[in-house]
Amino acid sequence: MTLTDVLDVVAGVLLLAGAVLSLIAAIGLLRFPDLLTRMHSATKPQVLGLLLVVVGLALRLRDPSATAILVLVAVFQMVTAPVASHMAGRASYRAGQVRKDLLVADELSDALPRLEENRGAP
Question: Transmembrane segments in this chain: where (predicted)?
Answer without folding.
Answer: 6-30, 42-59, 65-84
